[in-house]
Amino acid sequence: MTEFTTLFTGDLQSIDHPQILALRPRLEDADAGVRRIALIELADLEEPEGLIWLADRLARDPAEDVRAQAAALLEAWEEPEVVQALCEALTDPESSVRDAAAQSLSVLKTAEAGRVILPWTTHADIGVRTAAFRALRELRLEDAAPAALLALADEDAGVRREAVGVLGWLKKNEALDTLAILASDDPDSEVRRAATGALGLANSAQVLPALRKALGDDAWQVREEAATTLGKVGHQDAVPALVEALADEYWQVRLRATRSLGRLRNPEALWPLVETLTHSISNLRKEAALALGELGDDRARPALSQLEHDGDPEVRKAVRIALAQLQ
Q1: What's the CATH number where 96 sits?
Q2: Of 81, 107, 133, which marks where a domain is finished?
Q3: Whether the Cβ atoms of residue 100 and residue 72 lie closer than 8 Å to each other
Q4: Which of 267, 305, 268, 309 is CA-nearest to residue 289?
Q5: Residue 177 is assigned to a structural domain of this protein
Q6: Helical residues (DSSP H) of 10-49, grouped into ranges
Q7: Residue 272: which domain range?
Q8: pLDDT 10s digits, 75-87
């Protein structure tokens, strides 16, 4: 374990809070179970002075369970000192502690916390880099963009995937070309899937070739993501590829393609969507009905009316909504 050097004002000996002092004998008890329960009670006090004890136990307690508990209890605190302690815990020898620290880091909300995490994106350990980028993803910290762009070439697929997520949340147009390459050519299907989704960050025709290629990916999860993203991008040139995806062997891909065709509202999708109304999977019938409602073409009325008594109540509801939208 790393010897912890406190960054907090004061130290354990200087704490004079009466409730914390009352817990101290149990916080120092020889029994790890007693110490762990005492930490929970300490966290319930929500006293800033208690952070010193939590951080100290996270770094120095000999029991894995106690360190993991301390990491979990620190998730509600955004102080830079707490964030630093959690980052240091990403190097703990025990996976339970590392996982708890990574989880606590992932729920942080402030840019200040992100700046503490950022240097850890270049750590030698793959798990640390992965956790750092995961924690940065939803913070939308502009300073994280250069590190994420570099990490797109990381040797580890998990790091690349999390870096893609950071760039997706930041909506970085300068990353589109690299993301398009990853969406098509990365050897890891989860990276391809993440990159495909991130291509929806810009309403740009330059991403269409990569998305159309992703619709033919060997992994159905990538095809599913491509079908979704084409709807988000919103270009009518995507309609033929999405119509073709209605015949995909996986119903999940068909469902996303159906939904995207509804969003695009292109009349070329009318009869393929009408045909989808007859599919044996009720979720597809429902999505096809909703998509036809978005198209608003009255030629779909006879086919929709045939489903007014469908055995699935969700389909019947979708049909009612669609019929009300037809012109």
Answers
A1: 1.25.10.10
A2: 107
A3: yes
A4: 305
A5: no
A6: 18-27, 32-45
A7: 242-327
A8: 978 999 999 999 9
